[in-house]
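Hi there,

I know you've been waiting on this one. I reran it after we fixed the sequence typo, so this is the corrected version. Both the input and the resulting structure follow.
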Amino acid sequence: MKFLVISDTHGKIEAAIEAFKSLKGIDQILHLGDYARDGSQLENRLGVPVITVRGNMDGSYSNEDYRIIRTEFGKIYLSHGHMEAVKYSTHNLLYKAYSLGCKAALYGHTQLPMYENVGGIYLLNPGSLTMPKGGKAGSYGVIQTEQDLFKATIFYRDDRRK
């Protein structure tokens, strides 16, 4: 499967629509919160399934506001990240993903893009398309999964490598 991964759109979905239209073969969009209603709008406008999780700006303050999706690669944990305190460390996020049998964890909240493998668990933060931090352009992620493959790439709005 091929996923477009976005986070922290904060009510501004035009950049996400542009990103989607620039890509080929996207099966599903994963929206990692802060303005989860943006996921519904994207689904209606683009006609592609969108899975969303709620973030702190959605009024979510429950440790149960996460989703797990099943792929041919294995289970993937989706969270906004605020309840796992990802602005300070990814340890809580890793522990939760590991304890739930997930092989990857996707999160937002920091608005800083990041992709790494920690102890056999893939971590991806797509950054933010509309409110990026770190002095870079807005960003998003693309994930491809297969039986024995998890491949993620972070793209920036001004990137033409798609």
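Quick highlight: Helices lie at 14-22, 37-46, 91-99.

Best,
R. S.
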